[in-house]
Amino acid sequence: MLIDNHQRPITYLRLSVTDRCNLRCLYCMPAEGLDWIPHDAVMQDDEIMTLLEHVFLPLGVSKIRLTGGEPLIRKGLPRLIERMAALPGITDLSLSTNGIFLAPLAKRLAEAGLNRLNVSIDSLQPERFSTISRGGDLTRVLAGIEQALAVGFSHLKVNVVMIPGTNDDEIMDFAEWTLREAVHVRFIEMMHVGDRTFFDARKFLPVEAAMARIQERYALESSDRDLVGNGPARIMQIPGAAGTLGFISPMSRTFCDTCNRIRLTADGQIKACLMRPQETDLLGLLRGGASVEQMRELVIASLGFKPEHHDWGANLPIHRTMSQIGG
Ligand code: SAM
Ligand code: SF4
Q1: Residue 198 class from Cβ within 10 Å (0-12 exposed, 13-18 middle, 19+ buried)?
Q2: 264 and 51 in contact (C-beta within 8 Å)?
Q3: d(CA 133, CA 113)
Q4: 288 CA to middle of ligand 1, Å?
C-alpha cells in the first residue's frame, strides 16, 4: 500500500491518455490550443499497461480515472479500457470527457468494462455552451449523456465549472435537471490552473453561493446515496429528485486532508500534487529499461512532493494546465 509522508493512503490514479483536445474551453486553454506533447513522447498502450500491471497496482492503486485533454480522441481507447478492465485489482475504472464523441462510443465503452463516466457541461444553453467551449455542440453532448444512460452508465456525473458572470445564472437550471433525470451534477469552483488572465478577470464563485441560490427555492438535504467516487464533493439532494447535487470547493476550502490521488501525465510524468510544479519521469525509466522494483521506488519517492496542504496564498506558478496534467 502506498502511504505518503502525511499518512494518507494513495489508492487513486488519474491517468491522462492525451493532452490534446477537440474543444478550447475558455478557462482551460487558449483559442489556438497549447503546444501538444509530440506523439512519440506520449505513452503507448503497452507502456500504460506495463506501468499499471507492474507498478501502480502492486503498490495498491485500485481506482483509475482516464482523463486528458479529451480521452475519447485517443485512437483505440476502448481496446485499452478492455485491457485495463481485465487487470485484477482494479475496483473502479472511470473516465472524464467533454462528451462530444460520446454517443457513438458509449456502448463500446460499457462493453469494454468502463464503470463510470463524468461528462463536463458548463451551460445548458446551446449558444452559450458553444461560446464557453469555443465551438462545442451541446446537442451532441446531451445525446452522448442520453446514450450513456441508455447503455447502463447509472452513476453518471455532470461537471459544471462555475464561471462568474458567464454561467452562474444557470445554477438553478442544472439543479432542476436532477429533478427529471438521474444525473449527478457537480458544481466546481474555477481554479487558476488554465488561462490565468481569464481566471484573474473572473475569479471564482464559492460553491456555498451556488448552494445558497438553490436553497432559495428548495430545501436541500444531505444525500445518503451510495455513489462511488464522490471524493471531495459534498453531496446534497433536492427531496425526491432523481439525481444528486455535489459541491466541490478546491479554492474556498481545500480537501488535502483526504487526498488519495496521484497523477500520471500523458508523457508518463508522475505528478504527486496538481498544485506543485515537481514531476517525476516514470516513462523515462521504463524506456531506459529499469526494473519494476526501480519504477516502484520512483513512485514511492515521488510522494515526497505531496505537501500536507497546498497553499493558494503563496500563488505558486502553475507550470502545466489541467489539460496538460490530466484534470
Ligand atoms: N476534456 C475532459 C473534460 O472536459 O471533462 C477531461 C479533461 S478536463 C481538463 C477535466 C475537468 O477539468 C473538466 O471537468 C474541466 O471542466 C475541468 N477544468 C479544466 N480547467 C479547469 C479550471 N481552471 N478550473 C476548474 N476546473 C477545470
Ligand atoms: Fe478540453 Fe476538457 Fe479543457 Fe474543455 S476542459 S478544453 S474539453 S480538456
Answers
A1: middle
A2: yes
A3: 29
A4: 32
pLDDT in tens, 55-91: 999 999 999 999 999 999 999 999 999 999 999 999 9
Q: What is the CATH number of the domain that holds 240?
A: 3.20.20.70
Choosing from 70, 72, 95, 320 the residue with most ligand 2 atoms within 8 A of its CB, the one to mutate for a pocket test is 70
**100, 23 contact by CB (below 8 A):** yes
What is d(CA 240, CA 317) in angstroms, rounded to the nearest whole number? 44
How many domains are there within the chain?
Answer: 1
Q: Which amino acid is at 165?
A: G
Rounded distance between C-alpha atoms, residue 153 and residue 147, angstroms: 9
| pTM listed for this prediction | 0.95
The cell for 138 is: 451541446
C-alpha to C-alpha distance for 259 and 246, rounded to whole angstroms? 17
Checking if the pLDDT of 200 tops 70, the result is: yes
Q: Do the beta carbons of residue 47 and residue 54 sit within 8 Å?
A: no
Residues present in the chain in total: 327
Please tell me the distance from the alpha carbon of residue 68 to that of residue 72, in angstroms, as a whole number.
Answer: 9
Q: Is 102 in the pocket of ligand 2 (CB under 6 A)?
A: no
First to last CA, the chain: 24
Q: Is the CB of 193 under 6 A from ligand 1?
A: yes
Nearest to 52 by CA among 15, 79, 78: 15
Ligand 1 within 6 A of 243 CB?
no
> What are the backbone angles phi and psi of residue 219, rounded to the nearest 5°?
-85, 105
The model's pLDDT over 165-189, given as tens digits with 9 standing for 90+, comes to 999 999 999 999 999 999 999 999 9
23 CA → ligand 2 middle, Å = 6
Contact predicate 184/158, CB 8 Å = yes
Going along 61-122, which residue ranges are E strands? 63-68, 92-97, 116-120
The SS3 of residue 234 is strand
Q: Which domain holds residue 258?
A: 2-325
For residue 69, is it left (φ>0), alpha (ψ between -120 and 50) or beta? Answer: left
